[in-house]
Amino acid sequence: MTAEKTAEQRPFGLDLPDYPWEQLAPYRARAAQHPDGTVDLSIGTPVDPTPEFIREALTAAADSHGYPTTHGPETLRQAIADWYARRRGVPGLDPAAILPTVGSKELVAWLPLLLGLRPGDVVVRPRVAYPTYDIGAQLVGAEAVAADTLAELDESVRARVRLVWVNSPGNPTGLVRDAADLASLVADARSLGAVVASDECYAELGWGAWDTARGGDPVPSVLDPRVAGESHRLLLSVYSLSKQSNLAGYRASFLAGDPEIVANLVNSRKHAGMIVPGPVQAALAAAVSEDSHVQAQKDLYRARREILKPALEAFGLRVEGSEAGLYLWATADEPAFETIGRLADLGIVAGPGVFYGDAGARHVRAALTASTERIEAAAARLRAASS
Q: What's the whole-model pTM score?
C-alpha cells in the first residue's frame, strides 16, 4: 500500500469522545415545555454583571496595537503575587513563577502536552472530576487514572505517574481537602517525581466551615507553606477569575508555582502563541487587586444556595459534599438521568453526575449560577412537587 493511499484512508481530526453536554438536548426540550419557562442549573456560567471597574480597565487598555507578552507584564504578575499573599496564604511568591493563561480550561487540557508527557505516562485525577483532565491525558496518549490518593494505586501504576490533578474545592462535588491532606498527597507525589497541579478556581467560594465571612477557615492552596513546605518544587496552582469576578467571557486565568516548570511553560507557550490579550491582562490585574467585589458576588451565591438547597432536599434529594463552590451535589439514589428527567418535567435542567465519571452515576449537579428570580422559581417548583 502506498503512503498516499494510507494518508487517504486515515481520517482527519482527533479521536475524542463526543462532548457530553449534547446529551442534555432532549431534557432541555422537556424543560422548555414548562409554562413558566426553563430554569437552567446545568452549566456553571456566571449570569451577574462583570464589575464596572474591571470593564473600565479593559476599555482603558483597548488601544492594544502591539503584541502582548506571553508572560505578562511585571505589574500583572506582582498583582497576582500580592493576591496569593493576601487571599491564599502564600507569601513571597516570585512574580517570575506566575503565568497568565487563556482561561483555565485550555491550561487543563494542554498541560500534559506542555509538560512533555507521552504514551505510557499516567495522569491521576479525582474519582469524580471535571472531564477535561481525562481529555488532556488522551491528547498525548497518556493513561488517565481515577484516584483520590496515590496510595490507592498499584506499584506498576505509581511508577508511571507523571502528573497528579487535585481539584479543591472540587467540581462537581464541592469537597475541600484540608492542608494536612494536601501535604500528604504532595509528599507522596514528590516521592514519585510527579507534578501536582491543583485546580483551585472555587477557593473563594467556601461555605460552612470554609466560609471566611462566617468565621470559617480559608480554603488552602497547594502553594501554602503548610502544604508545600519550604519550596514550590513540582507544584502548580491553577486559578480562574471566571467565577469570583464574573469574567468567564474574558478568559482571565493564571498559573503559579515551581519556577523551573513555569519558565519552561512560558517558553513553550511563546512558541505556540498561547497569549492572553493585552486588554484582558489589564482587566485581570484590576480584578485581583480589589477584594470587595468578590465578597459581594459570594454573598449573592450564598443567598441562592440557601434558597435552593432546602428545596432540593424537600424534593427528596440528599445533598452531599458541597462544602464550597458553585454547585450542589445531590442524589436520589437512582441513576442520574432518572433524576434529570424528573427535574426536566418541572422545567429544571441540571447536570448528570455521570458526566464526571462512573462514581457520579447516581448524582446530579445543580448550579447556583442562575438569577435569584430563577433560583426562587426552581425552589417553588421543587417544594410544590414534594407536597
A: 0.94
